Amino acid sequence: MALIELDNLTRFYRLGGETVKALDGVSLAIDAGEFVAVMGPSGSGKSTFMNLVGCLDRPTSGAYSLDRQEMSRRNADELAYVRCHQIGFVFQQFNLLDRLDALGNVEMPLIYAGVERRLRRDRAAAALTRVGLGDRLHHRPTELSGGQQQRVAIARALVNAPKVLLADEPTGALDSRTSLELMALLQSLNREGTTIIIVTHEADIATYAARLIRFLDGKVMSDANQRMVDAAEALKALTASAAMEKVA
Ligand code: ADP
Ligand code: MG
Questions:
Q1: Domains parsed from the chain with CATH numbers
Q2: pTM for the complete prediction?
Q3: Ligand 1 and 150: CB distance under 6 A
Q4: 51 CA to middle of ligand 2, Å?
Q5: Could you tell me which of 20, 36, 131, 198 has the fewest CB atoms within 10 Å of its CB?
């Protein structure tokens, strides 16, 4: 069975006298180890989909299972537990706490999970090293670039070894070069086994994923595997062409 399975999932909102069908009968499966990009126009249901997969929200009808556990009829406490232990989230605005250094930010999910202090420090430092910030443990968010802040957010999302990393527009606040660096990091995490789902409205960002799902009006409009463009290679090409421009 797949890691993530949605069976005719819906999420409707009652607004005044009308029903908004934010998600309108979505069935799909995602295996462990996949790297999926989600695209679609504004209002097509991408965030609703991510919030349901991430157990931040409950569906109106249908079934959702994560690692063979049915999630759609769990209560708020049970969903909070699943979020804490099985899901990693990354958002467009990094959502870091400015009064804590990188280590302190990455430790937060471990505090919620009840991990003791020494182990917390070690695991947070290891996660930051994994995203290339081993030499920035005691920098605060304001002392880091946007790309570095997003790496801290990724370390925080991964520190509990979640089953899936969910990123809603993770490059939305980054310039194109920093976005590419971030995609190269996500690809290397994916090669190490992390299952990743990202929402993006940029077609070139989606090319770094191995599968593309397009939403329209709360439904899946298309869903296909694709050749994954190597972000590290693209970065090298970008660096080479920038050097050429300097010479010219
Ligand atoms: P996307 O992320 O693709 O831009 P969303 O999933 O945020 O789209 O929204 C899908 C649809 O559901 C939109 O029409 C949006 O207005 C509606 N919607 C989302 N959240 C709510 C809410 N809390 N209450 C009412 N309507 C909502
Ligand atoms: Mg959205």
A1: 4-247 (3.40.50.300)
A2: 0.94
A3: no
A4: 10
A5: 20
